[in-house]
Write a structure and sequence with these properties.
Elements lengths: L3 H11 L1 E3 L1 H5 L5 E4 L3 H5 L7 E2 L5 H8 L7 E4 L5 H11 L5 E4 L2 H7 L12 H6 L1 H4 L5 H10 L1 E5 L5 H11 L3 E5 L24 H12 L4 E5 L8 H5 L5 E4 L4 H14 L3 E7 L2 E7 L7 H4 L21 H18 L8 E6 L4 E6 L28
Parallel strand pairs: 1-5, 2-3, 2-4, 4-5, 6-7, 6-9, 7-8, 9-10
Antiparallel strand pairs: 10-11, 11-12, 12-13
Helix pairs in contact: 10-11, 10-15
The chain binds zinc ion.
């Protein structure tokens, strides 16, 4: 039986090693850190990915699907990575090297290292179901905690959106709404409750969010979005806007402002049993005015305050909007850009319509005719 030392010597004879300087000259190589998580968190090579030795066989194809791509494995001093290199060679990787001297030598030579941020143990527990999804993981959760989402409206659509954004750990949520919570809201606006009847909706929502997740900073704007305040509010820096407005003037204002501020908008609307969702991402797909250049005449627009709606419908549509907002914040998946998703609760049917950018769009087209905010009036009493 060989001793550990003898085994290590034998393995090192069978694999290729590279020193810190040589490793930097390897073109297109992927650096894989095979140490334990706590070692990785104390610092690692720039651009490296972490796959601990124990998970190497099962996870390597996920991070390096191409077996011809050069792979540099490293650990603390170059022993664990030597064994790891042998394993990858056996798995058919053709270009595997082990970093001689490991992270210790790399650092000693003065090469750049990354000291990554990481989640506290409390946050690891709270967001554990996100951490378990490879597409999100710790990096994605840190992105969410750094992200800023602006909600237009704390009503039917804004209710589920504010709750799920807060639960997901979106770091800052802005809420714009001038209304007061009343009894007719409680049939669907689940962020509010009997306790907050008569309170401003922004305060009611803030209270619910604070009780749900103290990691979230809530900025409240108890005002109706107008041409006067839209720049001030959008200038505070938002990654995504979730539009839960129930009226045309606000919808057009949000659209024009988002194009000029270059902020993606997750649009949602509901009426009786039907809802729709899409994503307007400036420069990458249509805007609202590409679809509807001008608002309908006031007498044809459904009256917002009187529009009936199945109570759960905003829950469904607002949740879909939140899903899109979270994807945009983390940078994963295929958002609903250029796709209008329609839902009919009576037949339980989803359908999708392709929507195109309009080169003649008055706002995002080649020759825009609208270059200032328009305050449309007369659609709704509120
Ligand atoms: Zn447009």
């Amino acid at each position: 039986m060989p001793t550990y030392r003898e085994l290590l010597q034998r393995v090192k004879g069978e694999i290729a090693e590279v020193d810190a300087r040589g490793a930097q000259d390897l073109d297109g190589a992927i650096f894989v850190d095979v140490r334990e998580r706590d070692e990785w968190e104390e610092g690692h090579l720039p651009g490296a990915v972490h796959v601990s030795r124990g998970n190497l066989e099962s996870r390597i194809e996920g991070v390096a699907p191409d077996r011809e791509q050069p792979v540099v494995l490293y650990c603390a001093v170059g022993a664990r990575s030597a064994f790891a290199a042998k394993t990858l060679t056996e798995l058919g990787y053709e270009n595997v090297t082990s970093l001689a001297g490991g992270f210790t030598d790399w650092k000693r030579n003065g090469y750049e290292v990354v000291l990554p941020r990481s989640l506290s143990p409390e946050k690891r527990t709270r967001y554990s179901r996100h951490l378990l999804i490879p597409e999100i993981g710790e990096a994605g959760q840190l992105k969410l905690l750094d992200s800023r989402v602006l909600l237009i409206g704390a009503g039917g659509l804004g209710s589920p959106a504010s709750l799920y954004l807060a639960a997901a750990g979106v770091g800052r949520i802005g809420i714009v709404d001038a209304d007061i919570v009343d009894e007719t809201n409680l049939q669907r606006q689940i962020v509010h409750s009997l306790d907050t009847l008569g309170s401003p909706k922004v305060d009611s929502a803030q209270r619910t969010i604070a009780a749900l997740n103290p990691d979230v900073e809530v900025r409240t704007y108890r005002e109706r979005l107008t041409s006067e305040n839209v720049d001030r509010i959008l200038d505070e820096g938002w990654d995504v806007i979730v539009d839960g407005a129930d009226n045309f003037p606000t919808r057009y204002l949000v659209n024009d402002a988002s194009v000029w501020h270059d902020i993606p908008v997750v649009h949602g609307s509901i009426y009786r049993f039907e809802g729709q969702v899409t994503v307007f991402k400036p420069g990458d797909g249509p805007c609202y005015r590409c679809l509807f250049p001008e608002p309908p005449p006031a007498e044809l627009a459904p009256s917002c305050a009187e529009g009936g709606v199945l109570g759960v419908l905003p829950g469904i549509i607002g949740s879909l909007q939140t899903s899109e907002a979270l994807k945009l914040a983390v940078g994963i998946g295929d958002p609903l850009i250029g796709r209008l998703l329609l839902f009919d609760a009576l037949t339980t049917e989803f359908s999708e319509v392709r929507v195109q950018r309009n080169p003649d769009c008055p706002v995002c087209g080649e020759d825009p005719t609208i270059t200032e905010y328009v305050d449309y009036v007369g659609f709704c009493a509120r």
